Amino acid sequence: MDSIAHSFCKVKVEALQDELERSRKENETLKVMVEVMSGKLSALRSNVQEIGSNSPLSGVSPYELYGLNKRPRIEIPMSKPSQILVKTDPKDKSLNLKDGYQWRKYGQKVTKDNPSPRAYFRCSMAPSCPVKKKVQRCAEDKTFLVATYEGEHNHDPNGSPGHSMYSPDSLSRSSRSSTVSCPVTSSPFQTEVALDLTLSSPTHDHKEKPRQTSLEDNISSNTNKVEEYVASLAKDPSFTVALAAAVARSLSTPRVL
DNA sequence: CGGCTTTGACCGGCGC
DNA sequence: GCGCCGGTCAAAGCCG
Fold it and tell me: Which nucleotide's C1' sits nearest to the alpha carbon of A103?
């Protein structure tokens, strides 16, 4: 009888040891994942400081600025349409966002979720260039314009070669918009981080808080979000394999921070 | 006069 | 089928 109980306990202990070992391995993997995310957040933090002290931007595309697309560690294709956020003077009623290309406005509409009107633009080279964009003020923070681009230009800005969409030239030509633009991609982290840089929670009072403080708050809250997200994924047994593959990929490529 | 913006009308998708 | 909503059309007006 004792021997039966003993073997039962032994099996139980072995199972628990296996479970413990598996949890330990998962924890190590998660630790690496969180470290990678922290690195990305540090890069964001330093870029935000750089923008604050070194504005307007000089010759750096927002994608490069945030280190998001040089070498994606987890390969998720860039979403189409893509969005950028541009800080502007809130008193400026114009939704004409100077990005180096010429646009023709073909409509304006007040949408349900945002009291600010949404403007619809087509590339002036249409129909040969099928690119469209929508521009609308951010509902939570009217100092930001949200521009949604659909399609890709098949020509250079202003018809001249060598201009990037976010070239210093195109930015300086804009009298009202310059300070911050950040891309929103299909990655869940990138999307949340990018959005939260400008779309803070409604509980924040923008009128009394300096912009920089608000950004810092959001970065801090994003750190928590990343950790919560990783923790929630870890509860999914099928995630371990996918996570290991993603971490392996991320470690096999140079850090872009 | 040509190119652009404005703005009300119209259309199609979607949910109920 | 109906109403809502986002997206587009197109006529009218504006401007250089």
Answer: B4
